[in-house]
Amino acid sequence: MGGILSRIVTTGTINCMGVFLDDLKKAFSSSSTAQISLVFSVAPALLEGTGVLASFLMSKIKARYLVIIGSIVATIGVLMASQTHTYLVLLLGMGIMNGMGQGLARCILPIAITFSFDDKTRHIAFAILNGGDGVGGVLGPILFSYLIETFTWRNALLVVAGMTAHLTVSGCTVPLTLTATNVEREKRKMSTTQTHQRKISTTVHSESEQRFAVTAASTSDRSASGSPSVEIGAEEEQKDQDMIDEPDVPLFPNAIFFLSNIITHSIAYFIFMTFVYSDMKDQNMAPGTVSLIVAIIGGVSIIGRVSICVMTNKVIPRWVIYMSGHIIRSLVVLCFQIPLPNDGGSTKTVIYAILCALYGLTDGVTGSLIPLICVDLFGLKRFGLVLGLEMFLMGLGAVVGVPLAGLMKDYFKSYQIPFLFSACSFMVAGLVLVPLFWTKKRYQMVSKVDKKSRLAERKFSL
């Protein structure tokens, strides 16, 4: 519950902050769109990139206290932003302090979940955790738009500060024993346990081979009666052995393709999510209607996040689905710039709702597939390294893309060019993965043929 609360708060209050853009531009009229956009880029950049800082601080401070400290820092930052009339204080409070404080919670809670659940329940915990992103994406636009319309943007930020303060509740769910030292000790313990289990399995397997001639008939009878115990045990043993015996997968050239995808995807994603509110408002759509339409992205993304449970490499490689999702999102963003008839807003509302639903579905799928793609392309041994680089580049893309799009808005006096830039970035993010068709032998994917041959070998050995 602490994990899902942290995702609701971090996604709802940072990734959906674009709803404040127009009001902040009016309040800080001396600041350009690019300067205001910098605030909205620094926060998600620090949210994604605080992992390195969190890892270092965990060696000095207990994880629970880190999350609570981060919550306090973020809350103070938002409170400062709600009362300031100075741009630099706005950048410091709403951008730096808010992003860094919430980033501690977003990075530490998944670690706590990893070591709080066993192999049988961990995937369920992470499914619930990822669902929090979708819930935050639904609640954020609707709630903030209502508060701004009913009160003011300053009072709305007071509510945001109250939401970030609830991260202290998430912090209280983190075990006091979770520190960097204990995490490494748990890893060594898990590795030792797996090694011990493999030794036992090897001994048992050797003894079973010696008794093979005596037990062949009874084993055949059990197989005929549908008893799955032997097959399941062999399959679990094979999984453990595959993980330990996994060869070192070369980082290059696949790392170039994947990390290029990440930074271009980040640029496109944060540009779209920051300016989509203002773009639709410029087309004379009511703020309440705009917030409801954008909330569809978060709602439908939950379906996309859940759907990855059935996505395996058996028929279509996961990276192909991942690549296709970026190309689809590119086309969706382009469709936002198609001129629509002015018929009172009903046609626009329906079309934009459909486009946001398609965007949300592909966003949920691609976002949730990233950890699996890391394993498919680079193996378990390099998973931590590649995922850390992915988070860093996601933050870098936010810092680069959003202010650049703000400069485009100031120069061209329209959101059309920033949206075209976002669409092109999504397209590049998809096409840059095309070379994987020729380097597919370098990534880890168990084909149906390999699986069938292993199953046949196990049955023959029995």
UniProtKB/TrEMBL annotation:
Compositionally biased intervals (Polar residues): 191-205, 216-228
UniProt main location, coarse: membrane
SUPFAM superfamilies assigned to the protein according to its UniProt record, in alphabetical order: MFS general substrate transporter
UniProt KW keywords: Membrane, Transmembrane, Transmembrane helix
Entry GO MF terms: monocarboxylic acid transmembrane transporter activity
Membrane topology listed for this record: Multi-pass membrane protein
Domain named Major facilitator superfamily (MFS) profile: residues: 1-442
Regions crossing the membrane: 36-58, 65-82, 88-112, 124-144, 156-180, 256-277, 289-308, 320-339, 351-373, 385-405, 417-438
Record's subcellular location: Membrane
Superkingdom assignment: Eukaryota
GO cellular component terms attached to this protein's record: membrane
Keyword Membrane applies: yes
Region (Disordered): 186-241
Stated name of the protein: Major facilitator superfamily (MFS) profile domain-containing protein
